[in-house]
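About this split. The held-out portion is used to measure sequence recovery: a designer receives only the structure tokens and must propose an amino acid at every position. Recovery is the fraction of positions where the proposal matches the reference. Here is one held-out target exactly as it appears in the evaluation file.
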């Protein structure tokens, strides 16, 4: 299974000035009177928006893109069957016209589709085009292909504007899964179905923006004039890929970009928040769905003893992590599921509080450890991610102090790409992990972490989803609960199952949740409409110059 641990950063675009003369001309023009209003067939806002970021893009092909920032672009360039309301977490139709009709056995979904929708190349959208798009996503072998290929048996056009999806087994979260940015409609005239047939620098979809230029340091998107829905409040977006957080920070401060999104460091965010009111900027912050955990390998001694894992949980102080590492720009995480979901329960807070050093020392002592015979545990972290490195250092000092030297962390840094792909090999006893959800549903925090298809309590997980996370956790009851919650359509019944799973995870401690990060964006003077939705989407069409 592919997973989205560290896959979100990038965007660079540099201004090229033509000399002092051009600069003077630019200043004269910008200081002069505003041009007359745009013609009525123009977008509601005729001015372009410049967006800066430090994110990097490998591809924007929806069948292969699996990183955070390409997802943000595809959210604005393309459209899916379903999306979320901008102000709530309510699921609503987008290219569909209604929520699915589901068969009694939960295996067949019939979805009516919107008519009168054009692709950016002028061709018309219909059910056959949607079938092509979903088949291409599943069959071309891109990084996220498994998301749809695992639950879906087949996709067919049951009418010109009706889609039928047949599942391998019931999956209650399918409508939420269909909001994944890569499950968007693409023009059959512009793409091919076939293993490895990708177009990393092109996109032809149905969204409010059309891709006009794709470069190594910039991307240009224009408002799509034949878009079926509400037109953007601007005429287009110019994305600048900046090489460092310092460049992003300076470009925003000096007015070189209108909006800064993804890539600012903790101290820079703190400074911009303080200066925002006085300088006419806006700081947009929302609770995030990205979470940080400590993974514990239950197959390695002594972590195969639940008492040792519980002792570690009793030594954690999440409030201190948030204060020291994130300067308040995160929130304590007390469950596998973040508190952006109503079903989240603070089970680790109930079981372990903000730590109970005396109880932790008792468990460690009963296991045969002491200050004279300490337990030294290797804790690995991605060396190229500053917050995780700082968390590791803080935990090392905190655990040693609270356990009175009975438990010690020995720190090891590893490049994130190497570390993340080595988790499934069982190399690391403990590892600091970031996780980004594939779609807005609690299942994305449960099934990948707890599910195991083959193994035993004695051998641990030998094959299954959580092997990819490096915990090798196996619990037959938990496996049954995971599948039950996935197949239960009734929301209240499913909620009870999800609460049980959170409680099981807190008791068995294959993971220790630490923090969930907030999401930030900053808009400059005279820029309105910047928002990060509750489902962590970043709509560009709402941004305008006042």
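Reference sequence for scoring:
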């Amino acid at each position: 299974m592919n997973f989205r641990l560290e896959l979100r950063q990038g965007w660079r675009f540099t201004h090229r000035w033509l000399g002092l003369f051009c600069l003077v001309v630019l200043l004269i023009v910008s200081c002069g009177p505003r041009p007359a209003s745009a013609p009525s067939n123009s977008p509601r806002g005729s001015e372009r928006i410049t967006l800066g970021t430090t994110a990097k893009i490998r591809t924007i092909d929806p069948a292969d893109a699996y990183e955070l920032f390409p997802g943000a672009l595809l959210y604005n360039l393309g459209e899916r069957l379903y999306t979320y309301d901008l102000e709530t977490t309510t699921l609503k139709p987008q290219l569909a016209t209604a929520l699915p009709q589901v068969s009694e056995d939960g295996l067949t979904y019939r979805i009516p589709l919107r008519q009168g929708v054009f692709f950016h190349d002028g061709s018309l959208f219909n059910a056959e085009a949607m079938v092509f798009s979903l088949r291409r996503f599943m069959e071309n072998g891109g990084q996220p292909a498994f998301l749809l290929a695992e639950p879906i048996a087949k996709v067919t056009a049951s009418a010109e504007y009706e889609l039928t999806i047949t599942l391998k087994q019931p999956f209650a979260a399918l409508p939420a899964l269909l909001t994944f940015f890569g499950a968007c409609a693409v023009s059959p005239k512009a793409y091919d179905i076939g293993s490895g047939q990708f177009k990393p620098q092109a996109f032809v979809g149905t969204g409010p923006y059309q891709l006009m230029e794709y470069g190594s340091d910039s991307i240009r998107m224009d408002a799509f004039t034949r878009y079926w829905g509400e037109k953007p409040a601007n005429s287009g977006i110019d994305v600048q890929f900046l090489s460092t957080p310092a460049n992003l920070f300076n470009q925003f401060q000096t007015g070189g970009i209108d909006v800064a999104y993804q890539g600012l460091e903790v101290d820079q965010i703190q400074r911009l928040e303080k200066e925002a009111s006085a300088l006419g900027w806006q700081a947009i912050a929302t609770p995030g769905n990205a979470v940080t955990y400590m993974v514990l390998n239950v197959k390695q001694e002594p972590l195969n003893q639940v008492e040792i894992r519980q002792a570690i949980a009793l030594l954690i102080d999440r409030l201190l992590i948030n204060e020291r590492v994130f300067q308040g720009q995160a929130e304590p995480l007390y469950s596998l599921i973040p508190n952006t979901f109503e079903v989240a329960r603070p089970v680790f807070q109930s079981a372990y509080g903000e730590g109970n050093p005396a109880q932790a020392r008792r468990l460690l002592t009963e296991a045969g450890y002491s200050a004279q015979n300490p337990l030294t545990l290797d804790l690995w972290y991605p060396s190229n991610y500053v917050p995780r490195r700082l968390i590791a250092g803080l935990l090392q000092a905190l655990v040693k102090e609270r356990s009175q030297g009975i438990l010690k962390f020995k720190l090891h840094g590893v490049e994130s790409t190497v570390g993340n792909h080595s988790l499934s090999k069982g190399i690391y006893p403990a590892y600091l992990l970031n996780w980004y959800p594939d779609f807005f549903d609690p299942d994305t925090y449960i099934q990948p972490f707890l599910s195991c298809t083959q193994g035993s309590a004695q051998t641990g997980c030998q094959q299954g989803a959580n092997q990819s996370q490096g915990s090798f956790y196996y619990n037959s009851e938990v496996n049954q609960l995971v599948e039950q919650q996935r197949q239960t359509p009734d929301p209240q019944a499913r909620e009870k199952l999800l609460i049980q799973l959170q409680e099981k995870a807190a008791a068995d401690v294959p993971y220790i949740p630490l923090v969930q990060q907030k999401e930030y964006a900053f808009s400059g003077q005279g820029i309105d409409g910047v928002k990060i939705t509750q489902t962590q989407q970043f709509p560009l069409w709402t941004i305008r110059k006042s």
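Annotator remark: Residues 120 and 204 are 6 Å apart (CA to CA).
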